């Protein structure tokens, strides 16, 4: 997972501040689209996100995984046709394809 998440610094709270703000307020804010990154010792520990956003993230990840599985199947079939079996990682490296930089 990428560390390039776009998070408003105002929405990054130490555990103590998140606790003082209260779970009910954080949940209401998340439901309204204002996610909060909770920090412990200055490091990300938890992310409070609304259910609709969570569902969208899970569905997007499942779609991405299914697409990659389909691509692996296509690659297997294509490499069999040229009699040069190649793993997905090898093919990506050979053609300098970076999947980490791709977005939906």
Walkthrough of the structure:
This protein folds into two domains: 9-49, YefM-like fold (3-Layer(aba) Sandwich); 53-98, no CATH class. The radius of gyration is 20 Å and the shape is elongated. 3% of the residues are buried. A hairpin with a 2-residue loop joins strand 2 and strand 3 (43-48). The protein has a three-stranded mixed β-sheet. It contains four helices and three strands, in the order E-H-H-E-E-H-H. The chain has helices at residues 15-21, 23-31, 51-81, 88-94; strands spanning 12-14, 36-40, 43-48. It is α+β, with helices and mostly antiparallel strands.
SSE topology:
Layout: E1 12-14, H1 15-21, H2 23-31, E2 36-40, E3 43-48, H3 51-81, H4 88-94
Parallel strand pairs: 1-2
Antiparallel strand pairs: 2-3
- How many domains? The number is 2
CA distance, first residue to last residue = 15 Å
**Helix-strand pattern:** EHHEEHH
Number of beta-strand segments:
3
Radius of gyration: 20 Å
Beta strand %: 5-15%
Averaged pLDDT: 85
**Poorly predicted runs of 5 or more residues:** none
Given the structure, what is the number of helices?
Answer: 4
Helix content: 40-55%
Structural class: alpha+beta
Q: Give the biggest beta sheet.
A: 3 strands, mixed
Structural shape:
elongated
Sequence of strands across the biggest β-sheet: 1-2-3
């Amino acid at each position: 997972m990428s560390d390039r998440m776009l998070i408003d610094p105002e929405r990054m709270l130490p555990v103590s501040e998140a606790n003082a703000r209260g779970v009910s307020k954080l949940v209401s804010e998340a439901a309204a689209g204002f996610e909060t990154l909770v920090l412990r010792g200055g490091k990300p520990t938890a992310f409070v996100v609304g259910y609709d956003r969570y569902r969208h993230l899970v569905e997007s990840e499942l779609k991405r995984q299914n697409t990659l599985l389909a691509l692996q199947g296509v690659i297997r079939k294509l490499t069999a046709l040229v009699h040069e079996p190649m793993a997905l990682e090898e093919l990506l490296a050979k053609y300098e394809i970076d999947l980490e930089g791709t977005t939906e």
